[in-house]
Amino acid sequence: MKKSLKNYTLSYITIIILIVIAVWATLFYAYITEEVYDNVDDGLKNQKIEIIRAAYQDESILKTDTFGINQFKITKSNVKIKHIEKSTFRNELIYMPYDEDMEPYRILTTYFYGKDKQMYRLEIRTSTVEEDELKYDLATALIILYFLIIISIFLLNTWVFYRAFKPFYQILNKLEQYQFGKIRESEPIKSNVREFTQLDTEIDKMLDRNEKIFKQQKLFIENASHELQTPLAISTNKLELLLEDEELAEHHLITISETKESLERMIKLNKALLMLSRIENNQFEAIEKINFNSLIFEVCEEFADLIDFKGIKIKINEHGTFTIDFNVDLAKILLSNLLRNAINYNKSLDGLIEIKIDQHHFTIANTGKGRGLSADHIFDRFHKETSAVNSNGLGLSIVKTIIETNKNLKINYSYSDSFHIFKIQKL
Amino acid sequence: MKILLIEDEAALSQVIMQSLLVERYLVEQAFDYPGALEKISIYTYDCILLDIMLPGGSGLQLLEKIKELGKDESVIILSAKDSVDDKVRGLELGADDYLAKPFHLAELHARIKSIIRRKNQNGDDVIVYKNVAVNTTDRSIQVNCKPVNLNRKEFDLLYYFIIRPTKLIQKNSLAESIWGDHIDQADSLDFIYSQIKNLRKKLKDNHADMDIQAVYGIGYKLI
Predict the structure, then answer these.
(1) What value of ipTM does the predicted structure carry?
(2) Which of A273, B23, B108, B121 makes a 20 to 30 Å CA pair with A372?
(3) Do A340 and B180 touch (CB under 8 A)?
(4) Residue numbers of the domain that contains B134
């Protein structure tokens, strides 16, 4: 799944901060415990000196042989120890009535000679830090810290992002809204970040360049088709005159007629190309409310002879009235192209055309030869599924171009139950 | 019948003129705006064929001039632009018909004939050929003074033939004129054949002295 730029950085930050905090926590824990023990041990050593000193002055202290309120005990010892000054430390769990639990104690053990030359063993204890609890508290604090950091980074990030990246999103939005060939309200993006203004102007330049090339190409096709009209008219009309010449033999006439037919195909192709550029140039401006139901009947009526001749059955089911604001000429061209398509590519026997009209969409479905067609390419210019002689490969691309003149309309092609279905729906 | 042909493309003008001459019209040519304006101001014509894009001015301006001069010539616009706007504007300015280039000459003749007939109309307009009379006003026909029922397309077919009897009419121009652009070429031969077969049968059943003859691979003619 794709993340947004903001979350992308955030996801890395969360992981990195987690690692940093974990490493830091272990180090911190090690230092803290060391420091705590150091402190406690120093205190114990100090006490040791004071106790031994006091024991010299007051021998009754030597009789303290249990941990009482003094937190030390002195017992006689017979152990021979080389380094008498050496103190040893150990941790021990001792029951503490206050907590009603075993609590960790730090215990210093040392040996000394009393005034009576007797060797004594001195143990001093003091309550020390609970390592478990320390760990637990530290972890809790760090987890809270971790989340606070993440949340503040997230908030900061969001805030900085929306401030710093606002122009970026504006540019993105602009590109999203952009439709080829449509006039842009190109207000330059205001930003203090040089890269963004640069990006914006470069994108604008690029779009302008593309549109210019596109327009030139369109104009070229338009002019070429336009310029072809006159020579085509002259040649077909000359051939037509020749066909009326009674001195010519029939085989001559047939050749002339065939030549003329080829030229007429070219004329039709040329007309289709001109039609495409006229639609794209928005030359069909007049928009009115069009009732497609009656228009469909009208167009079917125009094709009635041909449908009849081809032995095709046509069924029209009206479940609602499909009305939309549209140009009436374009609507007619749209429907006749679709219907012509449904007739031409129908089966040669028992062909069927089904038209269903609803309030929100209508479908024109026809039985046909072969399989379903490629929905991706069927509307492409000069795309031919079969080498049909009577197709110039522009009929459906005209349909598509007409549909595109109205933003609220959509067409798609599908194939099911051996029907080729063209569905036009309101968005 | 006098026709003024205003068309800047010399070769096209020439071929149209030739075809009109075959039909025994008197034809004058103009190739640009001033030339056309001069001819229109001085002479009177039955029909003017008018190209829209002319050197020195637009055909639509000429159309306005014709109306200003109070002339009642019928005008057929011949335009290479085939734009809806031009068509609407031309017809608003008083043109009688509009033909987009490239067109079939047969179609041009059909349009000229019906316009001239409409103009010279006194009472019902009836074309008679042999023992068949075609009434273009109420779209009825009579064979031997007996009415014969034709459907709309059959009438259109017969009309297309009878305005130019004995002339070879190509199947494509027939198809385009009567069924519009809807008939594709690959179909036209069989389709037109089946339509004409019905018409021939009706003519024959009613003992018309005429027949529609097929010219193989090209078209038909009324004899």
Answers:
(1) 0.85
(2) A273
(3) no
(4) 126-222
